[in-house]
Amino acid sequence: MTMREFLLGAIILSIFAMLFEGVVVFRNLKNKLHAYLFLNCITMLVNNTGYLLELLSKTEDGYIAALKFSYAGRAFILFSIIMISAELCHISIPKLLVRALLLIDVFVYAIIFTFQNHNLYYSKIWYDKTGMFPVLLKRAGIVHKAFMQYQAVVIVIVLAMLFRSIKYHKGKIAKRRVFIIIGGFLIASILYLFQIVHVFFITYYFDLTVFGNVAITISMFIAIFRYNLLGVIDMARDYIVDRLSEGVIALDVDDKLQYYNEHAKELYPEITKDPMNVVNTLREAIIRGDTIEIGDKYYTPEEKELSADGEVIGKLYALVDSTVLKQREYQLKSDAAILEMAANSMKERLNATEEILSQDRAMRHDRRHFEALILSLIQNGKLDEAQKCLEERMSQEPRGSRTFCENTTVNAALMHYVAIAERNNIRIKVSANIPHNVGVDEMQLAIAISNLLENAIHACEKVPENERFIEVTSKFKQQLLLEISNSCQGQVKLDEDGHPVTSKEGHGIGTRSVLDFVKKTCSEIRYITGDNTFKVQMLIG
């Protein structure tokens, strides 16, 4: 193999390597570092391709056209290297300076593209094809000299930035990654120096900086595939597949944002401007053990360390959709509150009923003796004494021992709330036909009726005493039809489902209990509002 074939083969291999690297970076494109890596791949690919065309050209015009094509990449290589280094070192470059650097490269390329019309870049050129490769010999113009000096200064600054960043990288992998990249840049810098001072004769007809580009490419390859330059993203994506989280955010070991998915951006649009504020919000929620409410959904934040070869290389924050679990939690709490309220209320009613029944049993126990006493008084003509005994006996009869319906459990509830209504000066009328067997659990039915009556009493308490009323009507024919109407203040507001709306904290539990009963028993309910009146109709079972 001749030297010409070796050099051409090396350039062709570098072109394919850069193309492959560009594809890998593009497929992992997610942040600024990856964008500048991709730009570097493209600029070097264009540069080396153009230079290959220069070496293979047959005419001066063909060489010049290939030169201009090559510089379309070469003029911007340094800009991409500056930006990559800044991202690796976590250095923020002002936007104005970034634009200035870009404008310098654009200006230089414009000068190169039109170099045949002036002597700013090349003061003199002549085409020579007598050597191993054709070459355009030239003398540097003022812009060329300034651009070379600019490149030398930038290379020194970039290397200084990279060396300085070593002490700020905490992990061994991160440090090795920086050393590998520095090695590639050092080789490129040395070859660049050899080229501009013509240390070797070969530099007069072959550009050694092409191999400097190859060195940088190889160092990036090693950094990517051996030292996880793009590894945080790959691991984050694996975690997404494993956990199916709604939002995912990945940081490197220096707490710098490396990745976020579309769900995270939708949940936190500000992540593009202030990512650490979002991350701190998640960290605080994790420490407190809180869920995060966003819109009508709930998310549980989780933190996971990302490691490679036993070393931590970053952290991943996942927002797991826990809306269903949270809704179930709230439902359980609501059900518990309803059951506690219902149990306390029913205990009250049962105690009241037990007291009434106890009084009734005691009176029945001595009724036989009482009746014998009255008969004896009448037989002895002591009518006044008999009347007095009867009056005393009647005053001892329990007021609550009224029967409103056959169903004893529901009757106990009706007795309890009728007594409460009467104590609050509410006119209450009950016409209830509720048999023993109503087709649903009688305790649940009693609780539902109790909640409706309690709501009706609360509504009546807000209106003047002379306007207070409650009417309870029920009829049974295969199904139980219940209607409760009462006075109220103004017109009760209903929601879109036709259910009463309450804005006061702690209220509405009774209504939710009734609606839960309706759902469980496949019943139907209807609320009807009017001016100062409210009516509930239920078809039960």
UniProtKB/TrEMBL annotation:
Q: CDD domains per the record?
A: HATPase_AgrC-ComD-like (cd16935)
SUPFAM superfamilies per record? ATPase domain of HSP90 chaperone/DNA topoisomerase II/histidine kinase
This protein is called N-terminal 7TM region of histidine kinase
MF GO annotations: kinase activity
The UniProt keyword set, sorted, is:
Kinase, Membrane, Transferase, Transmembrane, Transmembrane helix
Residue stretches making up the Sensor histidine kinase NatK-like C-terminal domain:
443-540
Which spans are transmembrane here?
6-26, 33-53, 65-84, 96-115, 147-166, 178-204, 210-229
Write the lineage as a comma-separated list.
Bacteria, Bacillati, Bacillota, Clostridia, Lachnospirales
Q: Which organism is it from?
A: Butyrivibrio proteoclasticus
Q: Which residues form the Histidine kinase N-terminal 7TM region domain?
A: 12-232
